[in-house]
């Protein structure tokens, strides 16, 4: 007899105490069986229960099948936080199609490189976000890359030659579910040089990531998580993010980065309990609370991660928001560290926590690759059950980014205390090589902000014909009249070595940001070069 049994080919797999039995698309059906009538997603005035989400994902997967998409194909998803983002992602996973998760702020340069590399067959975007028309971007991409057969836009007034997400609907013909060890999705590296690299994550390693992360953040059925940073970012998708919260029966409220006077009332309206912020946003939020008075008492956990944060800012956040703070140090390549909810105050303020799995194998090494003495600073190398050991189709970068033993070179300078807690001191590249003298940007930044008229300082290296690299200080503060000479004098009087005193000074009103809202140092370098010319 012909065996038409479509039961999963998947054998259960256990990672550090968490047993996985289904790929991510199948997990959604389990969640729907457990929590069918509960609200899973909220976006504006729209909401969707777990049961409706499961049905919608099935119909969308069916429509994608009808459009000719099949297992093993790749699709590029560049959607703002919306119900469409979550359904498209899950439909692709259910069908065994691999989504490439791009952020709404990315433009042709980044996307074109990704498409050339991964050859996706379809592109999913919003019709419009914050005044930007994605249709224009879609046309440029499609012109340059004929592999993009299908363009789907989420919104109204979609041009006739493109499909509209809400109109995609057809019965799903179940396929053989992907194996747990199969490629599930491609994330974009947060790399600060060149165009982003693609990070291949499997069903098992990604499911482990969001399930363990949900435990770390105390997520349960009464959790209400607000996603305001892009859902395509690993932090917001899986630490515990959208997937971690759904996996525990919690509710995800979707919004797009907007001003505090929109988001804070939303927290009150939806009784949000969990939220994740990057430090630049946290600073704005703290300032906003001097005039914004929405009732934020529903907040239980404020996660801070993605970039270096001062202990003073974390303390301020505790005082202003009165909630538990969790520092998160992670990377789309894998490793995630958390401060635990019951950690001592000094750990929560001063460290970025410790790895979430005891199977994470980390090593802190000096410039020669030798392990540093306990407590000393060095580069963090990591490997483990959910950390990649190669980028997607990137042989050249792989040799530079991974050691022969399969450790990922994070490029982060960290130290670790006796309890295993990690503090991020900087990036290897956040170092100025000024005529051979190495200067740590963080040290100069800290010295600059001791001046009463300097609120924030960022120091970058700009290429220089004489010095190799020169030190450029970007400054923010109320009075922008402080002469360079006075700043130099201040640093000198405070004991700074002459070679560490910045060569160039510029005052700035807004920090340039990356697609996920981190400080964009590359743009500052470009600015420093422009001002020089
Ligand atoms: C200092 N630097 C940090 C932190 C990340 C959770 C949280 C963050 C990311 C992320 C993520 C930092 N302090 N707390 O994917 O799931 C810097 C490091 C790191 C790089 C990774 C998650 N948290 N960083 O930020 O892939 O330099 O992931 O190597 O975008 O951000 O960036 P990305």
From TrEMBL:
Residues 443-518 form the AMP-binding enzyme C-terminal domain. Residues 29-392 form the AMP-dependent synthetase/ligase domain. PANTHER family: LONG-CHAIN-FATTY-ACID--COA LIGASE, SURFACTIN SYNTHASE SUBUNIT 1. This is AMP-binding protein. It comes from Candidatus Kirkpatrickella diaphorinae.
């Amino acid at each position: 007899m012909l065996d038409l049994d479509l039961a999963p080919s998947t054998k259960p797999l256990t990672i550090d105490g968490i047993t996985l039995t289904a790929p991510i698309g199948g997990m959604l059906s389990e969640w729907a069986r457990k929590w069918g009538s509960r609200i899973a997603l909220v976006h504006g005035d729209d909401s969707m229960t777990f049961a409706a989400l499961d049905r919608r994902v099935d119909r969308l997967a069916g429509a994608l099948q009808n459009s000719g998409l099949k297992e093993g194909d790749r699709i590029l998803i560049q959607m703002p936080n919306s119900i469409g983002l979550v359904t498209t992602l899950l439909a692709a996973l259910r069908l065994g199609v691999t989504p490439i998760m791009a952020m709404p702020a990315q433009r042709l340069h980044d996307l074109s490189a990704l498409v050339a590399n991964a050859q996706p067959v379809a592109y999913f975007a919003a019709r419009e976000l914050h005044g930007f028309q994605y249709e224009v971007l879609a046309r440029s991409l499609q012109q340059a890359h004929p592999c993009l057969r299908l363009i789907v836009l989420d919104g109204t007034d979609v041009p006739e030659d493109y499909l509209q997400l809400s109109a995609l609907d057809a019965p799903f013909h179940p396929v053989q579910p992907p194996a747990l060890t199969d490629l599930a999705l491609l994330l974009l590296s947060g790399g600060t040089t060149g165009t982003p690299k693609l990070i291949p994550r499997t069903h098992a390693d990604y499911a482990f990531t969001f399930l363990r992360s949900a435990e770390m953040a105390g997520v349960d059925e009464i959790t209400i998580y607000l996603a305001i940073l892009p859902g395509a970012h690993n932090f917001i998708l899986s630490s515990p993010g959208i997937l971690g919260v759904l996996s525990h029966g919690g509710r995800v409220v979707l919004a797009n980065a907007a001003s505090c006077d929109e988001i804070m009332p939303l927290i009150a309206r939806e009784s949000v309990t969990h939220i994740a912020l990057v430090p630049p946003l946290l600073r704005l939020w703290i300032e906003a609370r001097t005039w914004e008075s929405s009732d934020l008492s529903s907040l239980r956990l404020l996660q801070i991660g993605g970039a270096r944060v001062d202990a003073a800012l974390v303390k301020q956040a505790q005082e202003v928001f009165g909630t538990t703070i969790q520092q998160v140090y992670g990377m789309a390549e894998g490793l995630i560290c958390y401060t635990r909810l019951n950690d001592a105050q000094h750990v929560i303020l001063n460290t970025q926590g410790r790895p979430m799995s005891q199977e994470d194998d980390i090593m802190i090494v000096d410039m020669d690759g030798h392990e540093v003495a306990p407590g000393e600073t060095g580069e963090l190398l990591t490997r483990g059950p959910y950390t990649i050991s190669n980028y997607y189709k990137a042989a050249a970068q792989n040799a530079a980014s991974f050691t022969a033993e399969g450790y990922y070179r994070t490029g982060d300078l960290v130290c670790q205390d006796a309890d295993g807690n990690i503090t991020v001191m900087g990036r290897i590249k956040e170092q100025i090589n000024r005529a051979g003298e190495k200067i740590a940007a963080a040290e100069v930044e800290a010295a600059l902000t001791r001046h009463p008229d300097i609120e924030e300082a960022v120091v970058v290296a700009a290429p220089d014909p004489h010095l190799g690299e020169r030190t450029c200080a970007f400054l923010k503060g109320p009075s922008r009249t402080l002469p360079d000479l006075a700043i130099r004098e201040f640093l000198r009087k405070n004991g700074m070595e002459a070679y560490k005193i910045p060569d160039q000074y510029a005052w700035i009103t807004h920090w340039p940001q990356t697609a996920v809202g981190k400080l964009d140092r590359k743009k500052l370098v470009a600015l420093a070069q422009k001002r020089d010319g």
